Amino acid sequence: MKKVLVVAWREFLATAMTKAFLIGAVIIPLASMAMIPLIISLVANTKAPAIEGTLAVFDPTGKVVPEIAKRMTPEAIAKRHGEYQAHVKRAIGEKTQGIPLDAKSKAMAESSIETALGEAPRIKVETLNSDAKIEEEKATLRPQGPVPRGKGASRYEVPAPGARLALVVIDPNAVTPASGQADFGGFQLFVRPRLHDLILSDMRRVVEQSVLEARLRANGYDPAAIRALTTINAPETQEMTASGQRQSSEVFNMMIPFGFMLLLIMSTMVGSQALLTTTVEEKSTRVMEVLLSALSPMQLMAGKIIGQMAVGLTLMMLYGGLGVIGLVSFALLDLVSPVMVVYLLVFFLIAYCLIASIMAAVGSAVNDMREAQSLVGPILLVVVMMPYILWMPISRDPNSMLATVTSLIPPVSPFVMIVRLASTQPPPTWQVLLSIAVGFAAVYAFFWAAAKIFRVGVLMYGKPPNFRTLIKWVRMA
Amino acid sequence: MLGKRGHMIRLVGGGAGVNREPLVRDAIVIQGLTKTFGPKVAVDNLDMVVPTGSLCGFIGPNGAGKTTTIRMIMSILFPDRGQLSVLGKASALDSKDRIGYLPEERGLYRKMKVGAFLTYIARIKGVDPHGLTATIKTWLDRVELADVYRKKCEELSKGMQQKVQFVAAVLHKPELLILDEPFSGLDPVNTRLLRDLFNEQHAGGTTVIFSTHVLVQAEQLCDRIVMIHEGRKVLDSTMTQIRARFDPRTILVEVPDAAAGLEALRGRPGVHAVRPENGLLSVSLEDGADPQHMLRLIVGLVPALRVELKRPTLEDVFVQIVEDTGGRTDERQPGGGNGAAAPAVPARSGAP
């Protein structure tokens, strides 16, 4: 047993204490988490460049131009800009209670109108005569000279002040349909190439609203009254909890089972993949024989499986811990019962042991990683893809026939069971216990077969084995 | 150099007297060992005894079954039939910590540091971690690799890796050391170093078995030889007995005039053939001719500057046996007459 632990400890160190592991499994996820607030603030603070230019409008109806002009004053543009930023930050703020970004962004949204005034684009509306030639007007938007390319070239052009940025052509029937017809017309927007996308989307929205408002007025409605009629102020659904009320967590009710499943898949796969890699390495570098002169194949396999289990558990604790921190910051920790931690460990044990024994068997049988991939490929496809496929239907209806049956079929059962347990309608206890019992029985059977294959496989070199050979080895040993 | 070696002998000898189980007379006893891989019989009804304290060469051509036999001794492979006892136990599994093993196919963890690798191997061999680092450093120093403790295994040359492997095999002070082709790939300097280390281990009371197909090495080192060919034992004897048994059938004569000497000796009674060889005349004798008599006869016939009986090398024995048994393999049926090959000596007779 002491030797087994020595093997396990080396296995753990060789996998978890490498630069690749620390960077890939620890630093990158942590860094990307730290990046999220940064990315959010970057998005929220994006501003249109303060360019000056004109928007040409060809309006045969004569009713849309005033509406556009009203919305294209610098004040109106700056106001919309500030509202957009405030909206982004509010949307984020709602989802991130307790993250300090919130208070700061509120203050920013309030002050943004004043500050934005100096920085917002200034767009003058230019009305084209009714005899204007559209094709000629469009041609004025074509780029002058070559488009700058390569390093240093901006995606966006900064046109000379006063340059024409865009042309809007309003259809004659945009506001009132042609006589005898029911269909309304619309408009066409032509722009310079490389116009900033925030300016572009703002222009489009402005023209749409202008046409809409012109239509309302033409039909005798008061646009302000219509807006008031169509706006409903209803805060987010509140869920009554034991102690108070909080925002309904419909999304979380789906996501938490998914999170548990992901945690289980990830910690299982990282450990068992590393087990495959180290076993193949030991075989291909021929360290295997040295090891077998000191250990029985069983001690070696047991040590390796235990060592990589520790790797999987480390990852699970790390990511599980991050998950808990996440839930605490959303004030949703009570969605997860502490019993789930116990279940997670039990089902990790089952899932990991099942997959690790497959990996140990395959690793011992092959000559190199390429052969290993072709053998485990189909197995992994089932083990990894099945839970993803089953997650949706099972978390929708956690006690369906599909859920009950698949939670008794290893090696998919632990993943299905953890989804069901984390859902809002947990399965009956007898099913959980049965699933655990079936799981451990399968672990025993998988270990038994893997041990036999391992014993024969570790010293077999040459022809890459297939499943038939592996089965033969199970019978042989 | 002397001081260094003296130190080493103490190091090896220190383990010899203490904590050892009562010595068994024979380190390895094998009876009727058979192993087949599919249709190929790798080891066929092999009997073999290696007395405790001997330095035994295990020889045979490539593919003779040496590695398979060694793996069965190590309980890495399991025989189809037959029995073996290693250090008095039915399986090497029960005495793995008392056996040192250098496999033919050597490997190290490429990314692991040499010191960590040796520590790991020693730990799984059951060595107490206390003082282990010092022991490892002493050994690395001994094999002239003092500065590699912190290097990664992949940074070492092939010869260096092989020496590290040897250290891994002896760190736990084994009673029985089994080395499969230990000299392959080593330069003459390192071959000599390794040979000295063998002798030290042997002198410290360790039973050493090594396989090789380079017969000069076996001849220089071993006090016993076991030879197998096509999975069957064809020779099992001490070196002295082999030399005694393989009658010299050639006399080397140095004469001032080779042509005249050739003329004088050719066709004489008892002389099978005469041919010049490296400036000497090589006189092969007819079957039944007495070498002592022939020596006197030759001295009388030619003005000899030097006359000597050519002692058979292991290589001559080897080639002779392979040729003899090779011609007979068709007639022999599985399971029958294995020991019948002419030169085989009763296994136990050669025990020192």
Throw out a few tags for this protein:
heterodimer; A: 477 residues; alpha/beta; four-stranded mixed beta sheet; two-stranded antiparallel ribbon; 17 helices; B: 352 residues; six-stranded mixed beta sheet; four-stranded antiparallel beta sheet; 11 helices; 13 strands; 24% strand; elongated; disordered N terminus; disordered C terminus
Can you describe this structure?
In chain A, strands 2-1-3-4 form a 4-stranded mixed β-sheet. A two-stranded antiparallel sheet of chain A has the order 5-6. Chain A is elongated. In chain A, a hairpin with a 4-residue loop joins β5 and β6. Chain A has 17 helices and 6 strands. In chain A, α2 runs antiparallel to α4 and α12 packs parallel to α16. With 352 residues, chain B is α/β, with parallel strands linked by helices. Chain B is elongated. At the A-B interface, α1 and α10 of A face α3 of B.
Regions with little confidence, pLDDT below 50 for 5+ residues of chain A? 96-103
Largest β-sheet summary of chain B: 6 strands, mixed
Percent in strands of chain A: 5-15%
Q: Which shape of chain A, going by the Cα principal axes?
A: elongated
Q: What structural class should be given to the helix and strand makeup of chain B?
A: alpha/beta
Q: What share of the residues of chain B does DSSP label as strand, in percent?
A: 15-25%
Report the helical percentage of chain B. Answer: 25-40%
Helix content of chain A: 55-70%
Q: Largest sheet of chain B, order of strands side by side? A: 5-6-7-3-8-9
The gyration radius over C-alpha positions of chain A equals: 32 Å
Low-confidence stretches of chain B: 1-22, 327-352
Overall pLDDT of chain A: 82
Q: Count of helical segments of chain A? A: 17
Q: How far from one another are the termini of chain B? A: 31 Å
Which structural class best describes the helix and strand composition of chain A? Answer: alpha/beta
What's the alpha carbon Rg of chain B, rounded to whole Å? 24 Å
The helix/strand series of chain A, from N terminus to C terminus, equals: HHEHHHEHEEHHEEHHHHHHHHH
Categorize the overall geometry of chain B.
elongated
Oligomer: heterodimer
- End-to-end C-alpha gap of chain A: 23 Å
Give the overall pLDDT of chain B as a whole number: 78
